[in-house]
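agent> step 3/5: call structure_predict on target 'Glycosyltransferase RgtA/B/C/D-like domain-containing protein' (Arsenicibacter rosenii).
agent> reason: downstream docking stage needs a structural representation; sequence fetched in step 2, passing through unchanged.
tool.input:
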Amino acid sequence: MKHPIVRLLMQLGAVFLFLFAYLPLLVLSFYNHPSAADDYCFADTAIKHGFWQAQIFYYDGWTGRYFSNFLVHGTPLVWGWYDGFRLIPLLAVTGLLASVYSLLSELLRGQSKQTLILSTAILFFISIVSLQSSVEAFFWTAAVASYTVPTALTFYLIAVIIRWYRLRDGLIKSLTVVWAGFLVFAIVGSSETNLIVLVLFLLAIVGYRLLFQQKLDWFPGILIIVSFISSWLLFRAEGNAVRMGGNPHGGEFINSLVSSLGWLGMSFGMWLVKTPVIPLSILYVPLALRLLRPGSPVRYLFQVPAGVVTLVYVGLLGALIFPSYYGIGLPPAFRTMNVFYYFALYGWFYVLTTWIYFANRQSWQVERFTVPVGVPVLMVIWVGVAIWFSQPLKLMYNDLLRGHASAFNREMNERHERLLQPGKEVKLKPLSVQPPSLFVDDIKEDPEYLWNRCQAGYYGHQKLILE
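tool.output (status=ok):
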């Protein structure tokens, strides 16, 4: 890809793909509304009982996710700022982008700013293509707090860890340890899914340093201790037993392990086919070779046994799936698979780089690699097919272009104005449109249903009746 025109076209293509994935999320965020599913329950509990008492209620009665509970009980609804929910998707997307950029700025240190920006852009596009549910990734606040936030914090934490090793001894380095400890505390307290990945990742660092470098690394060791204490805080919550105890299929270890491996193989294989990861990997090889050159400031990050890294990679992905089967006896929810594909994507290129380093050490003359002429064309075709079959992109553009999002926004605004009117009982019309990129669930015909009671309580009514 040394020809300047080809390089320019590839750069413009990366920018286009980023905007193609980012702009619908940006526009749809202005149509976002609080969901009847959970949002009003969190807000009503916090308003009636106080912010901190609400944490205790949910910690003891439903889940030990203390940090995500902290977030969802402080949403704009609690402040009386209804339109503030339009900012949540924008903040979630921006936060995820910023964390990815932070991570890549460490992994690609020494490369040009243009390379860093374009790498972030193309990886973000692939992330959106492979999403299982855009509404659970960016628009439904409960899922954002428990899955997207800890995922973004995990990427950022990895960047902080890498940065710590190159800081000079002093106050900044000491404060970075404290900051990293807080990030571990927040990640563990947001999601069991990210908890498992984080703990295994930290153990992998300590294990590698101990077994291959004969060094006892105290920094990740401290973070492991913090993660264990945080995990204890999460799992000791009585609410976890309440939430998990209702499913008789949970707790079957062997069946859960077998089912997890099957789901892992199927999901990973489909991901390789439905996203342009394979042609992109070929285009990535020249960049990987630059990262591995003698004198590269990040070369040491990839000088690890490729086989061991691959096993850790597969193990981490399996760990994302296993809790769903073991906890409730069912395949992972879409929001869990969103996280799965995030880590699959970024881990894939790290593993690939370690194998390229291994090939160099074996004198396989990989350093002479040139991208075959047909690969950029293959990339374009594969990207087109990926876009065509991408469910989240289809749903987002369909909701925008067919007016479903604007109709939903109008009806939800009208419903909000109706709910602001005084009255013991309020009758509401069903929504005529339920755009899947924005809508999770609605109140029910039964006025005693939990979501009806929560929303009624928030607005000061006794009952909500869906006509």
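agent> step 4/5: record observation. Residues 4-400 form one domain.
agent> proceeding.
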